[in-house]
Amino acid sequence: MLTERDTKVLKWIEDNKVITIEEARYMFFEGNYKVCWRRLDQLEQMEILKSYKNKYDGKKVYYQDKKISSHDLFIHYFLGEIYKRGGELLQIKYQPRYLNDLIRPDSFLAFKWNNRVFLILLEVDYTHFTDTSKFILYEKMFKEDSLGTIKKFGTFPKLLIVRPNLNTTRYSSKNFEVIYTTLNYKNLDEFLFIT
Question: For the purposes of burial, counting CB atoms within 10 Å of the CB of 18, is it exposed (0-12), middle (13-18) or buried (19 or more)?
Fold first, then answer.
């Protein structure tokens, strides 16, 4: 029998294609890993959910209809980081298109944490690196306020670049913050979730 919590988990998957254990445990299971894993496993045994392991790190991911790439799973890993810290997702857009389709970040997120609203443009550099031409387009977006965030919130989103290795060339902007992190998001408390 499905519980109200199960229905919420299934709705999340319907809207976002997959759910990771890190997302689910903090969103729906009060941080309890064992209870979360056990219930998702039961839903899989009931053939309501399916699962697969991320090729990058072997973490289990649950879905109903369609798997997503390892690349796109790193967006969900970031959501897990938000929820783990008690944050609240306000909005997410996967691969939004800006500047007449010239630029597509992996996602745009708005979330609330510690009584502050954060706006993030997320670039996952798993199989490629965000090149200079893309950063130039982000500068153009800033100058034109094409997102409307400067007018509405007084700020442009932080650009979060997620890479396997931080020992690479980095872009720096005078107009907006560019944060670099690894695929496991280990340094976010230093650069994003600062109290």
Answer: buried
pTM exceeds cut of 0.85: yes
**Bridge partners of 121?**
108, 159
Q: Specify the CATH architecture of the domain 4-68.
A: Orthogonal Bundle (1.10)
User: How far apart, in whole angstroms, are the C-alpha atoms of residue 54 and residue 143?
Assistant: 38
Amino acid at 15: D
- Which two tokens mark 195? 């109290």
Q: Are strands 18-20 and 60-63 parallel, antiparallel or unpaired?
A: antiparallel
What is the rounded CA–CA span in Å between residue 92 and residue 135? 21
Q: What is the CATH number of domain 72-191?
A: 3.40.1350
**Could you list the mean pLDDT of each consecutive 10-residue stretch along the chain, which spans 195 residues?**
95 96 95 97 97 93 94 94 95 96 96 96 91 94 94 94 88 95 92 89
Domain boundaries, the chain: 4-68, 72-191
Residue-wise pLDDT tens digits, 141-183: 999 999 999 999 899 999 999 999 888 889 999 999 999 999 9
CB 193 within 8 A of CB 173: no
